[in-house]
Amino acid sequence: MSIDILVKGGLLADGTQADIAISDGIITAVEPGITVEAGEVIDARGKLVTQPFIDPHFHMDATLSYGRPRVNASGTLLEGISLWGELKQEQTREEIVARALEYCRQAVGKGVLAIRSHVDVTDPNFRTVEALLEVREAVRGVLDLQLVAFPQDGWYRAPGAERQVVRALDAGVDVVGGIPHFERTMADGAAAVRAACELAAERGLRVDLHCDESDDPLSRHIETLAAETIRCGLQGRVAGSHLTSMHSMDNYYVAKLLPLIAEAGVAAIPNPLINITLQGRMDTYPKRRGQTRVPELRAAGVTVAFGQDCVRDPWYPLGSGDMLEVAHMGLHVALMTAPDQMRAAFQMVTETPAQVLGLDFGLAPGKRGSLVVLDAPDPIEALRLRPARLAVISDGRVVARTEPARTALSAGF
User: Fold this and answer.
1) 122 in helix, strand or coil?
2) Has 79 been annotated as catalytic?
3) What pLDDT, in 10s, does the model give residues 32-63?
4) pTM
């Protein structure tokens, strides 16, 4: 008997050592001392072996466009939306595809093997949707790209946006999206949440809404989203992204809200790098940072996964596609520095987003043969160092390797 790939002597996230055998794109064994012949043996002794990194919230149609049509001078969410409104009228489908593919290459090199990307459907030319559908096909077999029909300019605020959402779903987009806090009124926002959930229930799809991405403590569309999730029978298929208003909400109200979110099975997707950059721009001091209440959500039983959101686009000038960088910032802002909390932050960019996206990843027999070998011994050191991804394996094929950096000191001490 022989297998395709044997990863030898790796350290799993719980500290145990095991070999991992992969054949025909599937993990066939995870145990110490596997001795079968293999087409390729990867020496992972002393190195952390983990399931792939997953980004549950991204905007691939805008990525790597920083500075077009100009730089976001105020650094605010609203100016970013305005700039994107200009860019999407002038960019070509070919430009979107080229930028997105370049970003996918960078992400795979960082061990990211699945991304949920929101795609703006309010472009009447439909270039964004067509481009991202093309990219999804191009990366298939290496990177799982899940697309969200996202009406960036509002479900009701933008003329024809609801029809464009339906058109995108008919074209093969995977998830129903929305942005209720950007509607003209709170009532329109609540109506948009209801419409999105009803559409998803009708089609058997998942829902992922940009929800309460605001410093306004009275922006409370997550409450409506949880209630509509229950009413439409969508438990376990819905995510509320950002939820930054919760940072500013009254504690008494949050004590009521958290159990409702948990009961509805709505996942929360904060985006640490972007949330702390865009929020609090109108504050003097003390200045709010905007990241939602991650430890409190988790304590209430809510599934929480960190997202990247943006890389070099109208909203954010930085970013590398490295989900360890996202988790590193997230744990700092959430004050999650106890050892078990840091390990949880690592799970929030690996195991947890796999659950949110409904993907069959995991280091166990029968799971997809996708994993990452890192130049670090455990999740906490991986968060501290953001080390090289020594090997990235996607469905039984090595798709990226990185040599670790080596420093030669000449200091005389």
Assistant:
1) coil
2) no
3) 999 999 999 999 999 999 999 999 999 999 99
4) 0.97
